């Protein structure tokens, strides 16, 4: 039994409950491995009709990401542990994306990084007023992984590019308005939703019955707080060069654009360029697995990069929030600097099937 994640079958329901509250349920390698094994088994199990993913009652956050400190400590060495984490986590992401039955994730609380990868690839995602979504990786010199290269470019327009490069946070109903969640309801109704899911018989048609339950409880999406800036987001973040995005923001000459430009300039220049290429290649990818292979190549190398180690030092270890990026300007990051992260790994390439 893994104390960090509770995995069980309840009738026709496969249940995964995150149980690591002291770390806001951040994922580690054993958690990802156990979830991968369960999802793989349940995909072929005719007695399982629906998968439910949530976190321990009465605790904060859904899932704050992965074990960043471990990744940095491993990256400072031979990176073996970090790479094994990515290999296991990305296989888990792929198993969830390919799961042939409905998946309901209740993302009630902080949902970042690995928590996004655990939830966003399923069919149904419920946000509440306590949900906080972000992919903040460019601020620590990492990159928006766990399938970010696949789902972010498919949110519509350049919303995903804005979220990935700036690390912008979406709260509550905005998460549903962005289509990161499929439904929204007040957190006080989450227990009622769980009770109805537990009591239902999904054997005759899980998707239809789940939709019926959700329609009774969830609320209509309100206009998103980012909606007044959608045209500017699409206009400024449509470019394939980060320097052109910054130039477009500077040319807008609005308070919103000045704030976004300042935010972008504070991120790791190398990582901003890597993430932008990741999103463009992910948008063109034929399959989810192709996109994840690309991300594995990036992650394999990024955990040993100077900017990732410096970002973790500044944000997580010393907490001075004053990283010294190298290079310090977008203009000094060459195409060759970016391209090295995307080179094939030969025998170390990520494989999916069979998992393990």
Radius of gyration: 20 Å
What's the helical proportion of residues?
Answer: 40-55%
Q: How does the major sheet shape up?
A: 6 strands, mixed
State the separation between the terminal residues, measured CA to CA.
19 Å
Question: Strand sequence of the main sheet, in spatial order?
Answer: 1-2-3-4-6-9
Unreliable segments of 5+ consecutive residues: none
Structural class: alpha/beta
Summarize the structure in words:
By secondary structure, the chain is of the alpha/beta class. The protein has helices at 29-43, 68-75, 80-97, 114-119, 148-151, 159-166, 173-177, 190-199, 206-217, 230-236, 242-252, 255-266, 269-284, 288-302, 306-317, 335-339, and strands at residues 5-10, 13-18, 50-55, 103-107, 110-112, 124-127, 132-134, 170-171, 183-184. The strands form 2 sheets. The protein has a 6-stranded mixed sheet. The two termini are 19 Å apart. The mean pLDDT is 96.
Topology readout:
Blueprint (H helix, E strand, L loop, with lengths): L4 E6 L2 E6 L10 H15 L6 E6 L12 H8 L4 H18 L5 E5 L2 E3 L1 H6 L4 E4 L4 E3 L13 H4 L7 H8 L3 E2 L1 H5 L5 E2 L5 H10 L6 H12 L12 H7 L5 H11 L2 H12 L2 H16 L3 H15 L3 H12 L17 H5 L17
Parallel strand pairs: 2-3, 3-4, 4-6, 5-7, 6-9
Antiparallel strand pairs: 1-2, 7-8
Question: What brief labels describe this structure?
Answer:
about 350 residues; alpha/beta
